[in-house]
Amino acid sequence: MQAALCPRCGSGKIARENELILSDEKATCTGCGWAGKTTELVIASLELSSSEVVLAVAQTYLAKIVELAAKPIGTAMVSSGLVAPKDASVLGRLIRAACLSAHRATLEEIEKIQREKADGGPGN
Predict the structure, then answer these.
(1) Residue 38's domain spans which residues?
(2) How far is CA 9 from CA 73, 110, 124, in A?
(3) CB under 8 Å to 106, separation ≥6 — which residues?
(4) CA 37 from chain center: how many Å?
(5) Could you give the CA distance from residue 99 to residue 47 in angstroms, rounded to a whole number?
(6) Residue 62 in contact with residue 98, Cβ under 8 Å?
(7) CB 10 within 8 A of CB 1
(8) Which residues contact 8 (CB under 8 A, 6 or more apart)?
(9) Same domain, 67 and 122
(10) What is the mean pLDDT of residues 77-94?
């Protein structure tokens, strides 16, 4: 059996138009408010432990950051003068550092929001 998980927070609290996963069907996460298409959901086997599911979602998120943001980040670095375009190895290292930092900061903020919700704070 498989579960559909939110690509932003990893929650299984997904609301869909119906139970069939169709390519154009809309889905929302009642945990964090994410909204998108069901094709964007992370599909995980229910045989995985919760820590394995969280790891899979985090790995998917990092891959998406690299896929979708590496080029614009590199362009911003070069156009701002932070690094010369001919210095490809340095540019690659800086892009990797930026993607990893964004990934880490997002996961840390999710943890903070979840703690606030558990304590009845601003994340509610």
Answers:
(1) 1-46
(2) 23, 7, 15
(3) 61
(4) 15
(5) 30
(6) no
(7) no
(8) 29, 32, 34, 61
(9) yes
(10) 93
Does residue 61 sit in the same domain as residue 86?
yes
The secondary element (H helix, E strand) that includes residue 3 is: strand 2-5
The CA distance from 11 to 42, in Å, is: 10
Of 10, 28, 46, which residue constitutes the final position of a domain? 46
Return phi, psi of residue 83, to 5°.
-150, 145
Question: Mean of the pLDDT values across residues 17-41?
Answer: 74
- pLDDT tens profile 32-58: 888 888 888 887 665 656 667 677 788
| pTM (two decimals) | 0.57
Mean residue pLDDT across the chain: 81
Which parts of 18-97 are beta strand (E)?
26-29, 35-37, 42-45
Which of 15, 118, 6 is closest to 57 using CA atoms? 6
Residues 77 and 19 in one domain: no
* Dist. CA 52–CA 57, nearest whole Å: 9
Cβ–Cβ contacts within 10 Å for residue 57, how many? 20
